[in-house]
## 1
Amino acid sequence: MSRRPPGPVVAVAVLAVALFALPLAGLLWRAPWRSAWRELSSHDALTALRLSLQTSVLATAVAVLLGTPLAWVQARVAYPGRSVVRAVTMLPMVLPPVVGGVALLLALGRRGLVGRYLDGAGVHLPFHLSGAVAAEAFVAMPFFVLTLEAALRSVDPRLEEAARTLGAGPWAVFTRVTLPLVRPSLVAGALLCWARALGEFGATITFAGNLPGHTQTLPLFVYVKLEGSSPDAAVILSLVLLAVSLVVLVGLRERWLRAL
Amino acid sequence: MTAACGSAASGASGPVTVFAAASLTDVFGALPKSDVRPTFDFAGSQALVTQIQQGAPADVFASADQKSMQKLVDAGLVEAPKVFARNALEIAVAPGNPKHVSGLADLARRDIVVVLADSSVPAGNYAHQALATAGVTVHPKSLELDVKSTLAKVTSGEADAAIVYATDVKAAGAKASGVEIPTAQNVIATYPIAVVKATRHHAAAQAFVDAVRSSSGQRALADRGFLSAA
């Protein structure tokens, strides 16, 4: 028998939903539907869109390549300082992205801690597509690592043990047993990471700068257009970003994130 | 009645929210103290225009160009603007000018990383005009969204040169050197100020505008390298 939910709780919950939904309604209300296609197919918008796809996919690739071993170590190896490492690798999730951008600049900029040596070697991240990728990976990787680490922890160690007993080497155990078991989470983590990278603004503009075709990703384009020549383009492209995020989240919820 | 008139002066005190061009950051922060207590929002003028159009609670708007101000005039959102200062462009370079930049033409050099303000920003618009006048084509590495972040790319060492206002170079002190742009190529920025019509602190807003245009306000502007309005 289901109890009637208490009225005040429901009322506050509705208020909470309104807090999320109202801004979306604002965008839909203000959207210039008539000129939507023209704004979307403008050369500048397409350039920003293509750049955003490039950088976010590359950032996700970086996150998967670097983040998979990290998640494995964090899940399987007990070592002193593991919680400190976890805190450091989660930091970008709570850090204001602009602060992340400043930190990246101080580390990898031309006069930065490591950047001064990179500069000598001819590697320049700021003002370059690779800088936008670095900024996005910095901000988005924790979403991948956390998702995968949680999945690795929930794998029954007896299954891996059994594989080892049957003569499988560590690599075979990982690729034949562990990886298939965590694949849904790996995909979910990569998608979350990609969606976050696609929306990255603060770290990118601070670290990589803002140049159409090179570092001006979609969120930067939206911001520049909003205060500049065509606020209509800004609204339409905001809706595009919103739709992508919504599709990713709804899709994840349906297929992979039931446990969350 | 006389009491009401007499209180006009005290009505001119209180909080005022001033939306001002980024290039005014240093000078407005250092205006002579008065009964008006201004709170500042410094950003690219074009960003402030958008915010005021969307109903941001500004009492006063000070722009780095006529174009941004005119948008608000046309929309009927501000009272009649008054020009209160002007500013010349200058090339900001690393202290001591290690790359030996001597003028706008050098900004086309391949070995120099140039950053400009975006053309939607007044400083970027002026810079584009100056470069066009000089017949120089540059390939900037970034188009920043206000003049202070443009300058910051030079003071942080990421860029070798940027076109900013003479006052920005001066405000940067030892962190940047300036290369003057000859008058024939230079573009002089014009700064209008106006009370926002929707203000709920009209007397105080007007008092702030008057203070900027007063002789002490003008002295503060001149001290920091601004050119006089006329």
## 2
Amino acid sequence: MALMLKSKDKTVSTKTKEKAVSNERIKPKRYSIERKEARWGFVFTIPCLVFFAIFAFYPIIYAFITSLTDRRAISRTWSFSGLENYIYIFTKDNGGFPLSNSIRATLVFTLGTFIPMIIISLIVAVFLMQLRKNRQRAFFQFVYYTPAVLSSVVAATIWMILFDPRGLVNQFSNFVLGTSGVDYNWLVNSTMLQISTMLVYFWKYIGYFVILFITGLAAIPPTIYEAATVDGASRWKSFWRITLPLLKPTTVMVSIMAMLQCLKTFSTQYMFHQGGAARRPIDVITMNIYFTGIRNGRLGRACAMSIVLFCIMLILSYLQLAFTRSAEEVEY
Amino acid sequence: MKKFLVILMALSLMVTSVFANGNKEDKPITIEFWTHEDANRQLLEDRYIKEFQDMHPNVKINVTRQAATSMIELVQTAFAAGSGPTVFNLSINDEYPLIAAGRVAPVDYAAIGYKDAAELEAAYMDGMLAPVTYEGDIYGLPLELTNWAIFINKKVFRDAGLDPEKDYPKTWEEMADISEKIAIRDGDILIRRGFDFRYPYYLEAFVPMVEQLGGALFSEDGTEAIVGEDAWVKFLTFMQEWGPNGRNLGSPTYTNARSLFNKDNNDIAMANTGLYQEARIKNDNIDFYNSGEWMVVPFPVFEDAVNDVAACYYGHYYMVNADADAATQEMAWEFIQYMLSHGEEYLETVQIIQPTKALMESDTYKNMPYSDVFTQDFARAHIVYHAENSTEVNALIRAAVEAVMLQNVEPKKAYQDLKKAVQELIDEG
């Protein structure tokens, strides 16, 4: 028994020695060039991290704390009210503008905007990539991208003029549909009003996503297409079998970005409401937050809504990532 | 000894510099002055600011002008962030919550040359300072007190075969019928409107219509909201009939009538606005102003009205931030009083009324075209509803009117939703 223990001790001590030797061998790696570079890389990211901590994380935490209070915009004092604001926004009408209606309006807008936007921006990007002359491609990229440079308020104002009953959109609709003097109620009818806000957003951001898709398409090595052509694949087949699968990482990124942007939509709805359109059909969560917090001064309640929006965005982004996890596996 | 005296003098200098408040004329004072845009008023006030700064070289006034509709959001946000303007003006229904929350300072009577609140009140028309009086103190001085009447373009009336002097609308029913006669349409699209409402201002112009029918915003004891179902439903039915789903006479989605009126482009015959519109017509279209082709008539009533109520009058009061230090507050009130001491010039140039007894009895006011119409409507009107929840109440009435006009919701359903929502507001406190 004692011998066995001794031999065991020997084995252990031999293993420890081996480990120590191997550690000594590994040790120099700690000071490898990559590690040093990584350390410098971390140093360079510090300003960015500080910036995000101050302008993103701090407001989120502050909003969460405020959501647990009865704070009003102009009152000097406030007290902790626990989950009262959360219970209120999910059970009461919020003065005629319930959160449930805002969630509905936001989801309708998001689904109605970001799905067509991704499909059409991908089609446009593929079409632009087919153009042989770089000048032509640059021209179309410029044309599609220009609205994205405009401020949202300016874009909404332009479209409000176009959607005026006597504006160009009604005239164009009458021309296309062969009618005369029909008011298509772009800013009046609930459904048309929602479509109007989607159109503005679509017009404004499609160029931005086209550019992102073009970047993704440009990264696909042309040799793959050449090989496919040699093998007799048609353009249609190449698109489905090569372009789409290899574009998956870009598509995932673009869809998440587009979805998050749509969930945060505000200016178009706000400007349309200011211009006389009804609030309820387009009362997206951000607009409800704005009116509850800024116009009605109920900061605690508005912060609770913003935390709900944050959670919705977090959950939807996670789900989208989870469903498309294999996207990372793409290799050329 | 000498050394002791020098130390004593140095110490005394230090003590006086630390504890002295300093003369208000020496200490640098910065006044952040926020007000709404008005091209005519801006010219006047820029001059007053310059004159005041010349009189007080230690005072710097930074003026910021924004659209009237954005002012409440900007001021409220600034106060929430703890950095409100030193001097500002808002409509009284937006200002009252600031008084109640203790965010604005009471008037410094000595700084504006009055002995006390009673003496100041005596200088103004009866009740004009009541909206800004809170627990015995006065918290604002009126930049303008405005009521609205109906401006008429006589040419458009004649073009529609109407005699403006005889056929102008006395009732809301006549208003709708006359607007029908004046309207020119291309299919459903209105090319020319007779009259259209001022849609964002529900407390000022729409609530009096309900009151004419016997309804009210609140019961007398303040416990019940949206009182008088018949009156509210009749009012909402009238608005539904007015809108695109009814007789299609107008809609909030068209360009607002008041802006079009001055252009005299044969696209609007009537607009609901204040005496200040005269100065704006003069400014925008001097030929139309001088043509004599416009006139002003009283705010109509319903045919079966039980109360003769005109559009509510509302005030924009200059106020001072309570967070400013004592010297800045004193200087701010002095500055406000300096501007307001030019009441007649405001009236002549901008045509806004600062309701002092002296001004209302002056020849300048009496000789203003149609000032008598506004004076008579003042007598039929009351101040606009102003309370801590007035902004929310206005938004809810707006939602009800939009529901019937634009979404074709049944007036009774819109009334029930409105009552429920406003009741929830007052129950919440």
## 3
Amino acid sequence: MKGNEAIAEAAIRAGCRHYFGYPITPQTEVAAYMSKRMPKIGGTFLQAESEVAAINMVYGVSAAGKRVMTSSSSPGVSLKQEGISYLAGSDLPALIVNVQRGGPGLGGIQPSQSDYFQATKGGGHGDYHLIVLAPASVQEMADLTGLAFDLADKYRMPSMLLADGTMGQMMEPVELPDKEPEMIEKPWALTGTQMKREHNIVNSLYLDPEELERINFERYERYKKVAENETRYESYMMDDAEICIVAFGIAARVSKNAVNAARQKGVKAGLIRPITLWPFPEKPIAEAADKVKAFISVELSMGQMIEDVKLASSCKKPVYLCNRTGGMIPSFDQVLDAIMNAAGGDK
Amino acid sequence: MTTEILIAGFGGQGVLFAGKFLAYKGLLEGRQLSWLPSYGPEMRGGTASCSMVLSDEPVGSPIIANPDILIAMNLPSMDRYEPTVKPGGVMLADSSLIDRKAERTDIKVFYVPATKLAQEIGTPGLANMIMTGKLIKECGVISYDSVEETLHKIIPASKAAMFEKNLKAIECGYNYE
């Protein structure tokens, strides 16, 4: 199954019955899959007139308390940012999928990770975060889609699946969940009062600055809980590692092979793979900073996550960048060279 | 054991489909695998390639730097990827479109005039599956068993007529000496 199809099927199995989108390579298979399946199961598939329309349709369904998603690729996700900020400001859960391609501008159609800043630092205006999940296999494309819905509902905030063109286009065997999704109550949803309760209001407009400040502080208390409870990462060969690679998505797959090869050459390399990019796994990196000689941030960008690696490690050790961008992917050799250089010449 | 296979050619030559066939074949044999396409925005023309990793363990990187097996469907693909094949590896070249011989002497090379054969046996456009048949015969990575079952899996019911043709092309490649 293709990664994009795995997202779509996993979303349906997670109880998502409403999809709004607008086609763009390399994520179009998500929409194509939804267009086939949704009508058969009584769901909604709607190709909107634009990305902006699609994200605002997501807002509407989410306010009504239903699981809803949209998907796009980098330029399209930029268009959605206003709506994403409104979702965050209204405390509405939803899933936004970004199967990244090279940028900036229209860029290209090959894989990229250069929307890291946009995804993890807000993207739209105002004080807010998304839960950002970064799959590194087709299996995780499915698993993290389900998780993204659960976390979004639990913490009343939008979540983002930040994949790249490789993950979307790649086929791997995948096992899909076959148990009923657990839905939580949403007493805040706009479901009609039926004259039995007070009106619910979903809104992001607060003209009284004191009230807006209070709400933002409350929201950040919730973000703190997310960081405490939901930070996820994979640690590979880190017990005795001297060189620590930090990489997510496809970069982590390439890096894992390079770690194995470095170990065969006698260099103790390890890998920390963030699964949540926000909240970023600061703790394991801070701990590693006391043990390793150096960090290498492997990215499909000009170096974006590297800033978080430096922050998390308090710059106690050098942090090197190993990168390709614009749709290119760091090669196995490039990562291995970076490890050997960081380890000190031709050890 | 892990085998990395790269299939490369023009868009429209069925490079991705041949890879998909091998991927499903591997799946039916209970192996771990990844299938990664790479192509431009064109439906026809342009360059297309497909990287496949078949393994008994979970697949590490789906991106191949040095394939064990290369199927070169045209000259630009052979020019570009012949130097990357692992020493001791295998290259299969469509000799009806490639008019040069391999430069490497440390790899096994099979020349199959697949495009020409495909026309002769009445399955034009299926040079990809002729090459696939030859790969099954010579490389021992996957078995000939369950070829039909695999084809049923990847050919949609609406294109059932393509089943016989694909099978014929695979057999042609398998039996080509």
## 4
Amino acid sequence: MPRQTTPGQDLTRGIWRENPVLIQMLGLCPALAVTNTVVNSIAMGLATFFVLLCSSILVSTFRKLIPSEVRISTYILIIATFVTIADMTLEAVVPEVHKALGAFIALIVVNCMILGRQEAFASKNTVPRAIIDAVGTGIGFIIALLMMGSIREILGYGTFLGFPIFGSNYEPWIVFILPPGGFFTIGFILLALNWWERRKLERARAGEPPAGAAVERAA
Amino acid sequence: MGDLAWIFISAMVVNNFTLAYFLGLCPFMGVSGKIYTALRMGAANIFVLTVASVCAWFLDTFVLPYAPFLKLISFILVIASAVQITEMTIKKLSPALFRALGIYLPLITTNCAILFMAWVQANRGYSFLQGLAFAWGAGAGLTLALVLMASIREDLEFVKLPAIARGNAIVFIIAGILSLAFMGFAGLFTS
């Protein structure tokens, strides 16, 4: 299947239609755990982007040399190396963000999205295509994190990137920066996406009587 | 003894790995359909956590002082091997369970809960016993969350849901409510 896609499709596929977090449900741990502010989301997104891009390049370069029996371990080792680099870089450059993200930087290693891209794409395609795919998926991941981060920071702190946007009368909705807020935010984003998809389907089917009511009442 | 119990309870309910730290979400979404598989998945996780905790403690005490930059790489290798051993054991002892767990068994390798446990254990400088208490607490917490979710989802099958909420959306919202409930444990230890 990957052979029939054009480079443009490789790029855009990961950004929206097969968005790693919102559609494929990969890389959920960081997407929920560190998105309580926009700054943290951006830092996490960029770190993951860096690791994904570098590992894709390396895996794709050595795809003919890696024996298939030990490929997963090899990918994990490659990813772990780049995560170590990202971890040390963040600690040196932006220590306060590094502190806020905590162990979740190390956990980029076990982000199934990265391993998934190596196994599904980089190990089967040439370096330029692997780069394009990694960029697309990485941007999709950043977009998903930014969506989560913006919703949670705006509702939970009443600020965006630290600037207050509701004025002084706003009572922050604390639950959104606490763990339950992460679950609720992604739950509601998925609800909205489902609703959007169904509406598109209904429109495509316009003319036919709606097969099965679109919204059944909850018992 | 007191601090061991504290570490255990804290990792199990107050800072529940799944509901407070969002760790192990893939199996949480994937194998929480039935209580039977959820329980066994939890047991497999506890086993891997135990092995990983022991190995991580040895690495951290005897090897890593000489090569701190190898921490992440050595931990992930240890975890991958521990998962491999678990997989072979389960396949040998219970082929039915092996099939039920499916892809989620090898995926324990990329279960962030295991790596997080090893990482935090090393960062907090836990002793051998404290590490074990932490690993078991974490495992008990994962199992608790999995089983709670599975029992809710078993009942959910008989409920008429709005079409847009079917699938993952409702599971996340339920997880949010569970997580809210678990926040009630915060402040259990005030000393």
